[in-house]
Amino acid sequence: MQQSVESLVRTLESYRGRDKVIRTVCYGSQLVGGVLTRKTESDVSSQQLGRSLLLFSAQLSHCRTVLRLFDDLSMMAYTHSYGMGAGEEDRALRWISVLTNVADQLYYPCEHIAWAADAELIKVKSDKWWLFGTVLWGTSLLLGILRSLRVLILLKKKLKTCQKDNSGSSSSSQLHRQMQREVLSVLSSMADISNAIHWMPPGFLWAGKFPDWLVGLMGTVSSLIGLVQMNADSSNQADIL
Questions:
Q1: 8 Å CB contact between 96 and 146
Q2: CA dist., res. 70 & res. 61, Å (int)
Q3: Which of 19, 27, 43, 57 has the smallest C-beta neighbourhood within 10 Å, fewest atoms?
């Protein structure tokens, strides 16, 4: 029990970990709230609790939006350090990563303008800026899926080479772990893309057709995968040290 609490504290102490926890609670609240509000109108207590959870989820989402106001510089530093991906051996991965960085970099100012418009700090309509942000987010997710699929292809080739050369089991197990991580990344991005499409203008695929509980479910799945991956990364770093 104490070890679990210490692990949670360490997660909350980092910005990345705290954001993932807030995201998980946000979508989890939307999932439960959406389920409760679908109950019969005679069940007043469940209806009230459901609405409260949906409001709580909306506040956590707003909290994450405000916190992302300070993400531009870190994203810019990462984009600058990656550059044109000169250190990337595979050409396809290099260009996919460059395009992903461009989409991510452009996403932040779009979201900032939309937030400022909603807060009445600037006199512009926020709708188109939220749309731009959603399109950029969806583009980044789609590119992320393509990148993971490309990585999986390359890892399979390496695995076959290891098996032919009778390399050590440690190399094979490491490649299998990397492949599992990429599969999880694909599942996470697919869940997020389903929500991104839901938030597009009506008429585009299933835009606007998801109930609250389904948006919460997709987001919760994606968030839990992110927490699992972050925990695995921490464990791998601890093993290295």
A1: yes
A2: 16
A3: 43
Per-residue pLDDT band at 53 (split at 50, 70, 90): very high
User: What number of other Cβ atoms are within 10 A of residue 55's Cβ?
Assistant: 12
User: Which tens digit of pLDDT belongs to each residue from 138-166?
Assistant: 999 999 999 999 999 999 998 888 877 76
Q: What is the pLDDT of residues 188-203, one digit of tens each?
A: 999 999 999 999 999 9
For residue 165, what are its two tokens?
A: 């050369």
Confidence (pTM): 0.91
- Distances 72 to 59, 75, 80, 109, 177 between C-alpha atoms, Å: 22, 5, 12, 8, 32
What six digits make up the tokens of 111? Answer: 């979201």
